[in-house]
Amino acid sequence: MTRAPLSPARTAAMFRRDPVQVMQLARLGLAHPTRLSFLRILLRRMQRENWRFDRPLFDIDANGVGRAVYRAIGSERTYSLVAFAHDLPADLRSDRVIATAWDATFALHDGTPDAADLGRLAANVPLQEAGRVTQKELTLSRANRSVRLFDHVVQCLSEGRQPDSDDLAATGYLMRTTAVYGSGKFGAATHRSLSERAETAAPFQAEMLTVWLIRAFTVDLVNHMARDRGGAMAVPLADGLRRILGVGNSTGLGMAPFLVRHPILLNNWMMVREEALARVRAQQAAMSDTVERFGLALMAAQENAAVWTSAHPLQQDRLTTLRSGLDQIAAYAETGWDRRAEYPWDALWHWGQTHLETEAQEALLSLMLEPHGHLIDGLEDCLSEDEAAAFAIDGSQQIGALKTMLARNYDWALEVDYTDHKASGRFWYVSEDKLEPRLGERFDEPGNDRELPLDIGRQAAALHETLESFPATAPIAELLLAHPEHRSIVRRVQLTAARPFAEIRDNLIDANMLPIDMLRCKLACFGASRFDPRSDRWVRISLFQNAPYPDDLHVGPDL
Amino acid sequence: MPEINALCLRAARGAGLGWGMAEDCAHAATWLAARDFDWADTVLYQLETSGGRQFTPKVRRWDTVTPACALHVGVAFSDFATLPEGPGSDGVCVGQVSGPLMIVPFAARASAVLGTALEITLDGAPWLHLSGDNLRIQGIGLMETRIAEVSVTPAPLDPTPPTQAALQSATISRHHLSRLDELALKMTVPSSATSAKGAGADDD
């Protein structure tokens, strides 16, 4: 995706943020979900296309063990979540990727599964990584109960009373997924093979549908177990309360390298968001209904920030900043913002740049996009791209041109002294036991000879140094013949030429780098909320909190 | 295909290739797998057999001392595609190559960039006709050739539909899988207590 063909607002180009500002890790780590986040795209499509939902199978016993099938029936195709609920001893419950058993396991099946499919899936899905699915499956996933809340809710409902809403909000979910595998993993269909389908063309749509249907399953499960325990006395979870619940997710370092290993996707995701912001800022006037919906979104954000908690000191500080910033925005929108002036949204944005902390600036971005669906929702078509198309290196490009691109897009990397122990204090690697990405201390631990190539800045600097010994008119093919070690970074520099948002513009091996910033950036693109770091390298979040369920998707307002 | 790509990337890196070369190796493996070629054997042959890397691209005929590694020759062929050292209008002989099937994905890339079909011969015998990703086998008996002199000549574009595996279920034998896994393990690092600290938890 390049900038030129995107904008229907011809003046939007003048309002775009500089990638130098946008792509700093500290700012990416403060990203908020927007209406262009992947789960919102899914919900909008299902609502717009009037998808239907049913539950043709729910065979689960009093202990919560059994299987269920949830169908999402679109205009052309049906997708089925096949759920297996297990009786998991407490001592086996683990959110780590090294776990081998879970409270529930899932697969998203392409179509309606028949008996043979269900038998095949029953033999494989509970095994997760140790099993195998087929191209008739789109995802493979598992989840663990929040034991405290899950049992509490079942007990309350079985006694005929509703759980306290504060208790629900404090945890935010009945189950948390510990992995949602898609796109070709363990035999499942690839995203590429599904890209011709409108409903799966945008990123991670199958994964989002999986999680959304899991959410419905978790509520059905507590209702079912409460009924079994309490008999006629039991009541179902009230609609207003179930809405508070999302699906939790534990995310660790495994997700972090994705943003670096997929620079084209990162560029598109950021470019789409930035183009959306530019289009809003380029509006010459603010319509009264958009201003009203901006106000509603702001109130919802304030409510969300009020109940968003974290035990991590860093996140606590950020939450304080966010709450205060949202209050500032509310006060300014009420009394200071001249919404009748020309380019009022741009004026609001500039005010935010001057008066708000970064956390609140990024929240303001999300709020400004919210009422402008008519202007920006079409950008969702620009999120995906065939990465293979840009894989080839142009060997005929001259060294001088490559140097120019390096200077333009990697200047942040060329200034760093990588001999400094702090600047190269860490290294990324793949763990031997689970083949998962890990972060090591370069000067304290062995293994940096097997480092993953996430040291983009250092690679760029090394390339820059090598280029000094080549004439500017020499072709890159000659450079790579003599120095194949630069092949990976040359490929990146070339593809970045037309993709200014392709790189995180920070040193990812610095001793002070925060992996959770990479996680939040990606999770915000998904649409995750309640970001709650548990260390500098893993995080809890919630998906679909306050979103509709299958049975009220078409009742609520437009998404 | 993503699994093939990931496995070959790790295996190539584990075998000692730089990341950029490993990326090209993985990309080539998926190209071959998508067309039902024996991608695993082809990759393993490159990674386990030490083909020479001493060659110099020249106009019309590359200098090669010993049979050269097809992966390295293929990458260079792709890089030099539009330069005088590439196939140009008269073609080029890239010399003796070890495991020539690995050259094909890179020749396909060159064909696409040049906008022309390419004929590939092994020791002078017609082998493959490439039009970008479209491919026609002209010498089926040559498919398992291990060492041959490879020549590439421009040819008229061919409208033959691409050879593509129908279900992307490119198979691999257990033996090949374990050898690739073995190589892949060489790029992993035992998790340390330090790195595991704070990497996750099992709380409620």
Describe this structure in words.
The complex is a heterodimer of chains A (559) and B (204). With 559 residues, chain A is α+β, with helices and mostly antiparallel strands. Among the domains of chain A are: 52-245, no CATH class; 387-496, no CATH class. Chain A has helices at 19-22, 25-28, 38-48, 115-124, 147-158, 165-171, 191-194, 198-201, 205-230, 239-242, 256-261, 263-281, 288-307, 313-335, 344-355, 358-369, 373-376, 399-409, 411-414, 456-467, 476-482, 487-496, 515-526; strands spanning 52-60, 66-73, 78-85, 104-110, 137-145, 173-181, 246-251, 426-431, 437-441, 529-533, 539-543. The two termini of chain A are 26 Å apart. Mean pLDDT of chain A is 93; it is low at 2-6. Chain B is α+β, with helices and mostly antiparallel strands and 204 residues long. Chain B has one domain (2-161, 172-184). Chain B has 7 helices and 9 strands. Chain B has a 6-stranded mixed sheet with strand order 3-4-8-5-6-7. In chain B, strands 1-2 form a two-stranded antiparallel sheet. Residues 164-168 of chain B have low confidence and may be disordered. Chains A and B meet through strand 8, strand 9, helix 21 and helix 22 of A and helix 1, helix 2, helix 4, strand 9 and helix 7 of B.
List the keywords.
heterodimer; A: 559 residues; alpha+beta; 9-stranded mixed β-sheet; globular; disordered N terminus; B: alpha+beta; two-stranded antiparallel ribbon; DUF3726 domain-containing protein (chain B); DUF3726 (chain B)
* Count of alpha/pi helices of chain B: 7
Question: Mean of residue pLDDT of chain A?
Answer: 93
- Percent strand of chain A equals 5-15%
Strand portion of chain B, in percent? Answer: 15-25%
Give the chain pair forming the largest contact, with residue counts. A-B, 61 and 47 residues
- Radius of gyration of CA atoms of chain A, rounded to a whole number: 24 Å
> What's the total count of β strands of chain A?
11
Shape of chain B: elongated
| SSE ordering of chain B | HHHEEEHEHEEEEHEH
What Rg of chain B is obtained from the alpha carbons, in whole angstroms?
19 Å
For the sheet with most strands of chain B, the description reads: 6 strands, mixed
Count of DSSP-assigned helices of chain A? 23
**Quaternary structure:** heterodimer
* Alpha carbon gap, first and last residue of chain A: 26 Å
Structural domain count of chain B: 1
Q: Could you give the count of β-strands of chain B?
A: 9
**CA distance, first residue to last residue of chain B:** 37 Å
The chain-level structural class of chain B is alpha+beta
